[in-house]
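Thread: "does anyone have the structure for this chain?"

Original post by V.I.:
We have the sequence but no experimental structure in hand. Need at least a predicted one for the grant figures.
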Amino acid sequence: MNQVEKIFSNLPFFKNVLINSIQKLTEGKNNQNFKVDTDNGIFFLKICHNSKEQGINRQTEYLILEKVYRAGIGAKPIVFDPETNSIITKFIDVPAWTLEEIRTELALKSFGESIRKIHELSPINQMSELRELLDRYWCSLKNYSETKIFKSFFEITRKKLDKYYQLKDIKFCHNDLCYGHFLKNKTTIFLDWEMAGMNDIYADIAAFSHFHHLDNEQTELFLQAYSQTSLNRDKLTAYQDAILLRELLWVITKLREGYTDYFYTDYRQRCLKAVMNKYKNR
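Reply from O.Q.:
Generated one for you, tokens below.
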């Protein structure tokens, strides 16, 4: 009996369910993913890794899945197994949005509206502020030589986040708005809610811009659909810098944890280059 079969056999919900097939999907950066076809439907199994610096609470993640499913923007959660740190949801057999599709005018307007709806959801007790996440990363990495070269950039950016802090901007956020996390359903379904919680909305907006390489025109299209009132562009720029820092500190952390394949080494170089270019151009 393999790992997936053991997990299913130990859960009362799947006690009398027959597994027809198991397909390992592309592995996430914080988990292992499987498509499990049974005689009672098709399910998505996520076996979660622990991540101290990211502060991910899997029980809270499951409660968030229930929340966003009720809102019509998430997959249906089935069960959380604390013993194996696994989450099972219904499998949604629709294609994911591609990077190229997301960057089109109609898609940017649609995502602006959808992300605004995420931020309009009721608040929860889970705090996931970008400022705190950066502090945790920096505390664990600040003594390494590779972080000392961008220490000044970190300090400047971190002070700007404090400067622009406003309680009214702290709302329920996804915190990982990256292509591959969006499914094309009747309405867009958002995946990977493990980092979700109360954060500054500018962090989500900056992350969406960062991951999808939006130019100024594309950013304006997205922002106009997101809000009828003008957003603080200086604050957005500060948060774009902060998201870049988050990604760099995250990938350095992963390399320190022993993840050494090409994705991590290449991503570190690209993030570090971008950070140093920003610092030189100040």
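V.I.: this helps a lot. The two ends are 58 Å apart (CA to CA).
O.Q.: and The chain has two domains: 3-90, 99-280.
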